[in-house]
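If your schedule permits, I should be very grateful for your opinion on a structural question. Kindly check, if you would, that the fold set down in the tokens agrees with what the sequence suggests. Thank you for your consideration; the sequence and its tokens are set out here:
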Amino acid sequence: MKKTSVSVCFVLMLFGLNSLAQNVIYKDPKQPVSARTKDLIKRMTLDEKVGQLLCPLGWEMYERKGGIVTVSQKFKDIVAQKHIGMLWATYRADPWTQKTIANGLNPELAAKAGNALQRYVIENTRLGIPVFLAEEAPHGHMAIGTTVFPTGIGQASTWNPMLLEKMGGIVAKEIRVQGAHISYGPVLDLSRDPRWSRVEEGYGEDPVLTGNLAAAIVKGTGAGKLSNPHATIATLKHFVAYGIPESGHNGSAASLGERELREYFLPSFKAAIDAGAKSIMAAYNSIDGIPCSSNKFLLTNILRNEWGFGGFTVSDLGSIEGIKGSHRVAKDNKQAAILAAQAGLDADLGGNAFVNLIEAVKAGEVNENIIDTAVYRVLALKFEMGLFEKPYVDVKKAKQEVKTPDNIATARQVARESIVLLENKKEILPLTKNIKVAVVGPNADNVYNMLGDYTAPQRDGDVITVLNGIKANLTNDQVTYVKGCAIRDTTDLSIKEAVTAAEKADVVVAVVGGSSARDFKTEYIATGAAVASKENKSDMESGEGFDRSNLDLLGKQMDLLKELKKTGKPLIVIYIQGRPLNMNWASENADALLCAWYPGQEGGAAIADVLFGAYNPGGRMPVSVPRNVGQLPVHYNRKSPLDHSYVEEVATPLYAFGYGKSYSTFDYKDLKVVKGVDNKSFMVSFSVANTGKYEGDEVVQLYLRNQFASVSQPVKQLKKFERVHLKVGESKTIEFKLTESDLSIINTEMRKVFEPTSLFTILIGGNSSDVKLFYRN
């Protein structure tokens, strides 16, 4: 009888414990996210709360032995000591991290690593909170074995939101199937100074183009519905005005006023947030003396109060410490952390600054409510994403669903659409296939120079160079390759051999430009930016940290081009570059000139498609190309009055914003404009026809000029655009609606308003300087 009573009691006790566990609100998936989040925060210690805001470097947190991946002792220690809530760049591989194909993680191993990390924190911490894994993803997931797309400036040259939405979905899925959750990108820094090292990462100089493309990418990531198993939290970079540093120096102060900030630099972030972005990274720079990482006006007044942003903000790597070190507005890292937290910065990338908040709270220097608010923003997204219920991923899917044939085909299409045809004299392009071609230049057959910064090591054969692409279209005896010279190294020369090859060929394809290819000899600072120096003879002349004082081709590249020109053979010049370099000589002397930016793993195939007519180029410039650095800034939407010529030369750019040629021609006609009520909107329609010999794409662009307003306005501003595919002889009617928002300005009181007295001119054409149709009210 006693044994029966004991057994019954034991069963009842177990039942009670199970019921208690089921009543823990944060563990109950049937409860609302807000209730689960609040319940969990109530159970957390101060140390645990602050830990959720820390995001240390992730590649140090695993150990790999063959096909087995386990957590490192460093990870165990940091979990025990700091209770971390996130990791950054766990799967990253590059010279800075010292992770290679040999010792890094392919997709299958990455999934194993992610599962091991999650299992450890869930099983070995008091509350079992899963960690967020954040990964770099500006043009594909920066990890071994993933699909590499063109860099941001190339993506922007497509002017194709639908294509980039598809790309965004691919990148997000590749990240999620490997077990990560946050994708760093897109990069929304408007670039007005091509000397700046990171032009390649952004979408050019215009807020409307950037905002539309960024919104499309964010939609593609599924950020608006995080319960989708392939959705990522898109982190927008860098908030804000990071792309206009003084003297072109990366991270330097930005000189601009609030109106310019609201007119040009904030709208693209707002568009991406409206599309679903739930994370924003603060920039390294300062604005009007206030570091962006501790700028309450930006992080709270605008983001939270004006825009109602409900996600979380995160520092750039080490930027909280930079409040003290770079900007010198804090006496130590604790004060820097206090300033950042009080301004509205939620998370610490690097994880070494916000640990000071524990002491600051205990000393009464920071209200714990600030910590609670930040933690709520992070934890709510973990619940929304379903990490507490499904923290692990299927390793087999990671192996099968990354870098699929369909993903590679999309990378090729993005590369195709990104190529800009700048010159095509006497219609030398497209080439026939019964010719001999001399392929020369430092970027003709260099795998890593095709890819740009923030790219992982590549397996042999995964990247198609220009030489590979051309050879795929011709026989071996039709193609001769000579490098000619390097990007920077003036001792690596074979110019004479290149000239000899050119003399024996029917046409010369010279591939020049720049490089953002990191190597294991380059030095890197703690944030991962490269250190530029005269002694460094790598190809790298662009990419984070590699700012330029001029835009000329480096090394002996100009010597190579001039010697090739002397042969008298038709010369096709292709620029593979991360910024708009000096193309004056090529513009005047080349028979054809193409800009391919960094076109990604399929770039060589895409370029060959264009050269041989399998694809009619339709890319358009997302930046104005200067004739000289003395013109800078030379962006198209400058304020009135209009520029006048310099003593030495004209003030116009070499190639205007929106410029790009086609193998076909297009005609615009039948403009109709219908005014809305009180002139607060316009319905604009017109027809575009393909009048050439090839089917192809025209990028239709509508610009607005405000003829009269209470504050000075841009000479013109892009408002609408559409990439249209037309068969030979085909015509399509295009319709754009200009809304009250499109017609509004930032007035003297810094409010966006429609002014009834405004007078507008509508300009329609193929680029910002090519007006085909216009209307004035």
Observations:
- Confidence is low (pLDDT under 50) at residues 1-21.
- The longest helix spans residues 2-22.
- The CA atoms of residues 66 and 103 lie 9 Å apart.
- The domain at 413-623 is CATH 3.40.50.1700 (Rossmann fold).
